[in-house]
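Methods: example folding runs. The two proteins below were folded one after another, and each record is reproduced exactly as written to the output file, sequence line first and structure-token line second.
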Amino acid sequence: MSSDDTVTVSILGRKYHFVCPKDEHEMFHACIALLDSRMRTVKNKSQVHTTERIAIMASLTLARDFLNSGKTADVDREKKLHHLETIINEALAPQEKLFD
């Protein structure tokens, strides 16, 4: 069982303290790096200046990317399933002649 400890991170140059399980530190730091990067992009590419608005815009872009990634996965999954169905049908076609 992992114990929690306090992690100090920097987002847009400000220090924040979070409690995080030790076994999730690596993922937590990756999430912070992604969030900080998105927030810096929003800050540099727009006229949004308050940290709160920057965070909201960054959150919206991350949510959009997340939702779009699911759509791509669904399309890929459908293509793979269709391909497998075609392969199975082609493999079974000669077997059907045995029962005619």
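Second run, written to the same file directly after the first:
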Amino acid sequence: MATTPRRPQAQRHRDQLQQRRLRAAELFAAGVHQADVARQLGVSRQAVSTWHGRWTAGGSAALASRGPTGPSPRLDDAALAVIEQALKRGAVANGFVGEVWTCERIALVIERLTGVGHHPAHVWAILSYRLGWSVQRPRRVATERDQAAVERWVAADWPRIKQTPTGAKPDWSSSTSPRSA
């Protein structure tokens, strides 16, 4: 199971920034002045000066992206695969009453399976960004609902209730603009 990147938009942004720095490296190699590089790429001279110093010290590889910042995820892809399989088995199979998943329940399952505790609010980030899941809300229908009685009411009573008195026309609410019917 391949998980989605932690933050796909951030990854795209990082790639765009890296492309801009590598383009600067090409311009440096071609002998273009730093001020011209800044103008062509639409960045500050200070940024180009920093890039030039790195490029001089380590070549184009020194301008490559260093990857995402921040701590590494506490759950690797293998652990996420185990969690996803457990969630697909259902809430009852995981020891809960009823088939509704909540973030609190999923946090308990994650802690049981991996030993890693997550705040229930963070569980949603794991589900959406790492596993690619979306919110699924159950339809709310009254258990004592009598569908046949509802259909009879809609067919017989609702038209009578909705009907306006004989010959009546709806009033126009605007006193400044008469109805143009």
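Comment on the second run: The chain is about 55% helix and 0% strand.
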